[in-house]
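Morning!

As promised:
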Amino acid sequence: MANPVATNEELEARRLAAQEDIIPTRPSATVHKICPHNSSVSCSSCRLNELCLPIALNKSDIHQLDAIVERNRPFKKGDHLYRQSDEFKSVYAVRSGSFKSYFLSDSGQGRVTGFYLPGEIIGMDGISSKKYANSTSALEHSSICEIPFSQLEKLSQELPSLQHHFFAIMGNEIAKDQQVHTLLSSYTAEERTASFLLGLSSRYARVSLSPSRFLLSMTRGDIGEYLGLTVETVSRIFTSLQKKGLISVNNREIELLDIESLRQILTKGT
Amino acid sequence: MANPVATNEELEARRLAAQEDIIPTRPSATVHKICPHNSSVSCSSCRLNELCLPIALNKSDIHQLDAIVERNRPFKKGDHLYRQSDEFKSVYAVRSGSFKSYFLSDSGQGRVTGFYLPGEIIGMDGISSKKYANSTSALEHSSICEIPFSQLEKLSQELPSLQHHFFAIMGNEIAKDQQVHTLLSSYTAEERTASFLLGLSSRYARVSLSPSRFLLSMTRGDIGEYLGLTVETVSRIFTSLQKKGLISVNNREIELLDIESLRQILTKGT
DNA sequence: CGTAGTGTTGAATTGAATCAAGTGTCGTGG
DNA sequence: CCACGACACTTGATTCAATTCAACACTACG
């Protein structure tokens, strides 16, 4: 909290450069800036290749996947990957940055249905109806790998382990969504918030970022829409968790001070 | 509501026999009872084959699917298909009856995560972690087709259209779960209930049952757990919708009297 | 430097939960 | 076939968590 604000990419770059968990107090100093949006990287050299689609493929197979992946220009904050009811064409793997998906109902109000971090797959909701069910936009400067779905299907036909892995990715999405169902149907505002923070924490850990200290790329409003709460409630819960000493919040920068106690909020249930 | 209670299977059998929408006033009369739990039927002769996994397969391919499907003994009300953290082995297609999936949290309280009607697929939440994330039990006397997943994968490798269809089924589940997310995070009790009833209606229509009159195989408590409401609230909303003339409820038997107005509850939003 | 967007905090309100007390229904065993 | 007990459902009164309404502070950006 003594820190000036830094973007996730900067934090990420720093971490890669320094292999340390502690965020330097004067980050703007002389950190060598690695650009994580570099679009010329191949799947085999991508540092996410052990988390992303290539996870199940051997060296030679990866090149086949590589050949169908399109590495698009970087996305600016607010840019849309696709919009609700656009024709479904591709799924996307987040390379850097973050995205949110949201659903606009007939009555015009939107709700956030998901946040996506590096190594995660976006767009699977469009597979069955051939139209995307959500809109998805970048929360910060971000980059993406586009994987045309028809080609992914074709390649899955040739590479059993790719098929297996993609089934697993989709199954994981289903299991995750059902957990969220439980969360929304029975947890209190504090429990939802704690669960959200712990979820982000482990997802950051997965991409080798600090699990206890990170930047929220989404607004309080986004979080509220995702958790089924209002902005005000999210803000109040953050404040109250801070007063209890479980977290430390400073604007978008957040630190989980007592992960164990945060977990207990979820398990001490009714 | 002047009707004595009848099970869904009976309603189904009657409909098949009579091709009519109106439930006879004296059902116990002389309806020729077709047993929908007959386990000797093959995929190609199953009357659900245009809704279920075979949908995308031609005659000759169906026999290959047929060969890996295991048609289990019927399930009695309350019998479990599998339990949370059992080893994942198969996905299941509902042949007749209905099932509920529910998740037990550490604190012991369970929440219903889904209901499954004939032609729908159960168990995909276990694919990625190799353990089922839910327990699933029969809500009434029901029958099931078990599809060992490893064999389904193998066969998907040979039959591109099966792979395609299974991707679509999973994508559909994801899209559906995200709609539920929106429902739970922003709808009122009345909106959730209306949406639930309309959802059941169209799913019954899909299996050629009356979309406006059906039996609820789940308790008010199950509905409440699914929608994130209490039993009392569900009961009150049913009563209030009945007073408004939109539905008619008599115990587990329900009739949607004004589907258009029910839809309007959802769209008139904020 | 000003302004729009984002976040915080307080007070009042409310929708649904909880608590409580029933009635209705079904399956079982006598 | 009926009586019993367990479970399912309904309805009312009260409480409470989260929303709503309102005012203000902070930040970021042109």
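The first strand of chain A starts at residue 70 and ends at 71.

Hope this helps with the figure draft.
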